[in-house]
Amino acid sequence: MKIVLVLLALVAAAMADHHCGTLAGLKVKSEWGRAYGSGHDREAFAQAIWRATFAQAPESRDLFKRVHGEDTSHPEFIAHAERVLGGLDIAINTLDQPETLKEELDHLQHQHEGRKIPDNYFDAFKTSILHVVAAKLGRCWDREAWDHCIEHIEKGIQGH
Q1: CATH code for the domain of 124
Q2: Residue positions in the annotated binding site for heme b?
Q3: Is 65 within a domain?
Q4: Which of 52, 27, 47 shows the shortest CA–CA distance to 140?
């Protein structure tokens, strides 16, 4: 009987590690603040994310024709890129506030529904975020926390 209880406890502990819990959310929130920066740093950060996204999914540029997605240096595209990261900033900064996060993800999901954005575009964007954050922070980031929390945000926006 003790073995069963120990095994159940280990399974529960292992499963708890595979989601974006409070500790993971706080880590991501703190690391995001350092990576996202401020002012002109945010512009370069946004451009790096979108250039990486477009390198992985070149056809995704077509979704951004209205804001000159063919040129990530165009002022209209930069403004749009920063608006997107502004929404992500809100989501990340509410990771430790489940009700508020749900409302933000519902809002972002509503903004994206009807655009028929393929899942691989979301995946490319998520991968780009992870790579750019890693490049910005070096070894001072928690990859596992980021994987779980960005996945949670991505699925919330996709409505999955």
Answers
A1: 1.10.490.10
A2: 112
A3: yes
A4: 27
Radius of gyration (Cα) for the chain, nearest Å? 17
Q: How far apart are CA 146 and CA 104, in angstroms?
A: 18
Which residues are annotated binding-site positions?
A: 112
- State how many domains the chain has: 1
Instruction: Output DSSP code: residue 26.
Output: H
Digit-by-digit pLDDT tens for the chain (160 residues) are 666 444 444 444 444 446 999 999 999 999 999 999 998 899 999 999 999 999 999 999 999 999 999 999 999 999 999 999 999 999 999 999 999 999 999 999 999 998 889 999 999 999 999 999 999 999 999 999 999 999 999 999 998 7
The SS3 call for residue 24 is helix
In this structure, what is the dihedral angle of CA atoms 131, 147, 25, 49, given to the nearest 10 degrees? Answer: 30
H or E stretch including 59? none
128: containing domain:
19-158
d(CA 121, CA 61): 10
Question: Which 8-state DSSP code applies to residue 73?
Answer: T
